[in-house]
Model the fold of this input.
Amino acid sequence: MVRGDGVCFRCHPIFAAYVGDYLEQLLVAGVKYGECPICEVPRDKLGDSTTQYPFRDLEAVLEILAIADDRPADYLQACKHAGIRPIYRPFWDDLPYSDIFLSITPDILHQLYQGVIKHLVSWIKSAYSHAEIDARCRRLPRNHNIRAFMKGITGLEKLTGQEHGDIARILLGLIADLSLPNGQSPARLVKATRAMLDFLYLAQYPIHSSETLDLLEDALQRFHDNKSIFEDLGIRSQWGLPKLHSLRHYRQAIERLDTPDNFNTEYTERLHIDFAKDAYEASNKKDEYPQMTLWLERKEKVLQHQKFIDWLVTGRPSLQILNPLETQMARICLPKNPSQKQVSFQDLGEKYGAVDFRSALAHFIVEQNQPNLNRSELDIEATFVHFLFQQVPVFWKIRFWSEDFPRFRNANTYDVVHCRPSYSSKRDSRVTVPGRFDTVLVSDGDPHDGPRSIHHYRVARLRTVFILPSSGRELLPAGRRPSYLAYVEWFTAFPAAPDPVHGMYKISPAYRNGVRLSSVVPLANIYRSVHLFPIFGPSVDRTWTADQVLDQCSKFYVNCFSDRHAFGTIL
Done:
């Protein structure tokens, strides 16, 4: 292996991990279909959650493989007795310090998304009314991390792992308060669903500790404790699912090989498109391999040249800037210019729903100047605040990023919230696009202080983000003048504990004296977006719509599965 400075070294890599789907694992390990490639669990005991079976014996298998040339008849009989396929000289039989059975890695894509989650969704479809599930899908509030299934999910077929992941984000909210058709209690079904979703999200942590691994095992055990509901409903009669059994090996694999995100086949599956499918389409379908290789080589050269041109255009930055070891991203990102430069107080109330904007802004100014006033004194002082302006610039789209995002997900992507009123479609001026005012998680202090308990946050609906003109900024004390402000409508505080069945927090719009409680807060206090599940009841109101459900519904559950960071924050 050649080092960066040109010095050559002789290396002896040790085979440690094999990444593949279930069929590939069976092929490389020589194990029969329907069995576990890691341990010696009998095929009819795959659903057993209590017995710990030993790992497959590598030494015994190697002894059998060694007689393949000398005693073929004995070899076939020995393979049958050992429960392996008669494979001839596999690549791993003479590799030192390697154990193929312990090298099998977790596979989030095929074992979880395309395995257990796929099964779970089909079981839920069998348990509940398709019409009711789809009706709830069409009435979920909008969110940047939530896919809108406007035609429902029960009619979908041949789904990808990404689509199963999108369904997992909303699955618990669809069934949390839904009754089973035959009158049975849905508690065990909801608990089993919550447990499997917990396992799915915990398994994808990029960093694990003994505590998170304990939570991982607890989630799996909770599923096994409640899976009997599917037997009672006649949906399952046995649990001989190799992919479900494979979840029992996750903790051992993580402790031995590192976190599963390092071995996710989703990355290599995506490369099938770039390196195989696209390349094949570029050929004439005859003697395709040389053409595919040449096409990929030329494509690489074009991309390298494009990067070189981009480097020249940007002023030839140093390599330290070109490839930073740590990505520095702004916590709040707004457009350079406001979406609307001047919006009157009246329009804020009529178009944006900020009906108490003037009073909320006056209260904020008084509170910044006199932070020790009680509520009654604050109300009195706010009546004496006079504004020399009647319009403010507003923003419709805000992006958030937190330093702890990478603790739960790998991509350095922003979280996005919208607060835009209805407008006419560009394609057809006769069509009005409904307004969108997302819900957010607001911190009771500076979010830069680090991770906090969920009870240090409160859910609010963002109505508008604005900046004060110079005459308005002068009303604030010199050291307390936020660059951006937000008008929000509050929901009730998080209860002391989540629901004991589905584990979600229940909240509702907050009122004081019959008036929706609202405030002006610094935009920096908003931590991220948050998605809410309307509490539909036994049957969803068909007059509700996704665009109006936040106004039409009076009670909500806080969705902790909208993305992996939300799960780590709200768990």
The CA atoms of residues 13 and 96 lie 10 Å apart. The first helix runs from residue 22 to 29. DSSP finds 20 helices and 18 strands in the chain.
